[in-house]
């Protein structure tokens, strides 16, 4: 040590010591952050494994395809900010995720072969509680009798004395500008819609009241949650 250092005033000595200790302090904070991040990753991995096991056990029960799975502990943590949706076309199921973990697994009906539901990454663009389609519905005469039961306004033009009545789509959540969204509808356990994702009324009401505009929605042949971790990482 320089013989001059002891003669420095206390304030200068403290400044020098702080300067010398800065790299060690920064390294210590960095190490703590890394340890904390790794611990959080382990906790999340363990929670994911546990929730997937609980969900898999539920799916082993009878007639689960007509039922809805609910993880009440995860639903208690649900907020508009930590929620997302996955739609699995192969399974005709929807998943509500909370922080990426399966909180609900519910039946859906997606587009039939002639009107397939588009796949990809979407967001909820808007919500309307009482909504009617301007594309699909029926054509009726002045007395209300149905003239065309499965009308498409791009193909079927109402004749004089008739009018188009759009199909009701309660709890409408739009996904794109081509008329595809989530809404209440008939869910027969197979693809049945004109491209939309039909939900049972209680599910649609819950999602409508919980999710916000901007909520991420993934539509895929198989829900990404059930893909191997290595595949999800790509």
Q: Name the helix and strand elements from N-terminus to C-terminus, one letter apiece.
A: HEHEEEEEEEEEEEHEH
User: Quick one: CATH superfamily of the largest domain?
Assistant: L,D-transpeptidase catalytic domain-like
Largest sheet: 10 strands, mixed
- Number of helices, where a helix is a run of at least 4 consecutive DSSP H or I residues: 4
Residue fraction in strands: 25-35%
Distance between the termini: 55 Å
Q: How would you characterize the overall build of this protein?
A:
Helices cover 29% and strands 29% of the residues. The strands form two sheets. Strands 1, 2, 3, 4, 5, 6, 10, 11, 12 and 13 form a ten-stranded mixed β-sheet that branches. Strands 8-7-9 form a three-stranded antiparallel β-sheet, with no helix packed on it. The model is unreliable at 230-234 (pLDDT under 50). The protein has two domains: 1-60; 65-131 and 169-224, L,D-transpeptidase catalytic domain-like. The radius of gyration is 28 Å and the shape is elongated. It has helices spanning 10-59, 72-75, 201-210, 229-233; strands spanning 69-70, 83-88, 93-98, 101-109, 120-123, 126-128, 132-141, 146-152, 162-168, 172-174, 181-184, 197-199, 216-220. It has 234 residues and is an alpha+beta fold. It has four helices and 13 strands.
Topology of helices and strands:
Layout: H1 10-59, E1 69-70, H2 72-75, E2 83-88, E3 93-98, E4 101-109, E5 120-123, E6 126-128, E7 132-141, E8 146-152, E9 162-168, E10 172-174, E11 181-184, E12 197-199, H3 201-210, E13 216-220, H4 229-233
Parallel strand pairs: 2-13, 11-12
Antiparallel strand pairs: 1-4, 2-3, 3-4, 4-12, 5-13, 6-10, 7-8, 7-9, 10-11
């Amino acid at each position: 040590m320089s013989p001059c250092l002891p003669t420095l005033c206390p304030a200068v000595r403290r400044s020098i010591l702080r300067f010398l200790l800065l790299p060690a302090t920064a390294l210590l904070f960095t190490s703590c952050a890394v340890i904390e991040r790794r611990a959080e990753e382990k906790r999340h991995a363990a929670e994911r494994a546990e929730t997937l096991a609980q969900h898999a056990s539920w799916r082993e029960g009878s007639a689960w395809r007509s039922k809805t799975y609910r993880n009440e502990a995860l639903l208690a943590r649900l907020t508009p900010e930590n929620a997302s949706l996955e739609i699995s076309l192969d399974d005709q199921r929807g998943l509500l995720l909370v922080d990426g973990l399966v909180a609900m697994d519910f039946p859906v009906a997606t587009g039939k072969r002639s009107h397939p539901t588009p796949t990809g990454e979407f967001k909820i663009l808007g919500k309307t509680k009482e909504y009617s389609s301007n594309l699909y519905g029926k054509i009726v005469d002045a007395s209300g009798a149905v003239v065309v039961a499965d009308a498409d306004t791009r193909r079927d033009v109402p004749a004089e004395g008739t009018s188009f009545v759009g199909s009701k789509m309660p709890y409408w959540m739009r996904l794109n500008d081509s008329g595809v969204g989530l809404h209440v509808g008939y869910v027969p356990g197979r693809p049945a819609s004109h491209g939309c994702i039909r939900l049972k009324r209680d599910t649609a009401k819950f999602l409508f009241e919980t999710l916000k505009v901007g909520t991420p929605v993934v539509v895929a042949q198989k829900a990404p949650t059930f893909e191997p971790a290595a595949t999800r990482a790509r």
